[in-house]
Amino acid sequence: MTTYIHPSWKQHLQEEFDKPYFKKLTEFVNQEYAQHTCYPKYSNIFSAFNHSPFDKTKVVIIGQDPYHGPNQANGLCFSVKDGIKHPPSLVNIFKEIEIDLGAIYPESGNLQRWADQGVLLLNATLTVREHEPGSHQKKGWEKFTDVVISKLSDERSDIVFMLWGGFAKKKTKLIDSNKHHILTSGHPSPLSANRGYWFGNKHFSICNNILNDLGNKSLIW
């Protein structure tokens, strides 16, 4: 499984790969993919890392689970493959970008274009069984992705962490706020957004302002 992860991450995470919990997780994932339909495609499990190398990551957005419907998940949180209908949370993300930046609502929900600019689109759990949300939770993925966040916090500086909703906000404890920039808001899901906890957070313009102030190239959202 780890043969599919970018070398820049592998050197920082090899110690985790060698731990018993990760070996057990790998066995579980391999068995699940052999016996069931799971998402994303096996070779895309680490797509978030492959499009945003360790030393190039400028922004981190944290999701919870991959989409569990056919042809949706592509290994990047909130993202779907080209040509796939945009899920409600992604619709609200794009609507906020329209409001915040005056951008045109995009045709494709594939966020690879963000990832290739240094946005790590990290789900806490990297795999899921088809039509069974949460089916791969508490198997070791959360422990692993917490280490990913901690490694970025400890070994990098001036990363913008965008934490949306209660689940993502809990990751604040893993991030050194003296070294990094933490933006929090409600989740973009309709339940949260319709209560006024998402729209108007201006995270995308705030993030670009931070990056510009640091002398980093702002992102084309």
TrEMBL record:
The lineage of its organism: Bacteria, Pseudomonadati, Bacteroidota, Flavobacteriia, Flavobacteriales. Residues 50-211 form the Uracil-DNA glycosylase-like domain. CDD domains: UDG-F1-like (cd10027). It comes from the Bacteria. The keyword Phosphoprotein does not apply. Keywords: Cytoplasm, DNA damage, DNA repair, Hydrolase. The active site is at D65 (proton acceptor). GO terms for cellular component: cytoplasm. Its EC number is 3.2.2.27. It catalyses: Hydrolyzes single-stranded DNA or mismatched double-stranded DNA and polynucleotides, releasing free uracil. The keyword DNA damage applies. One of its GO terms (biological process) is base-excision repair, AP site formation via deaminated base removal. Belongs to the uracil-DNA glycosylase (UDG) superfamily. UNG family. Excises uracil residues from the DNA which can arise as a result of misincorporation of dUMP residues by DNA polymerase or due to deamination of cytosine. This is Uracil-DNA glycosylase. Coiled coil: none annotated. It is an enzyme of class 3 (hydrolase). Its main location: cytoplasm. GO terms for molecular function: uracil DNA N-glycosylase activity. It holds the Pfam family UDG.
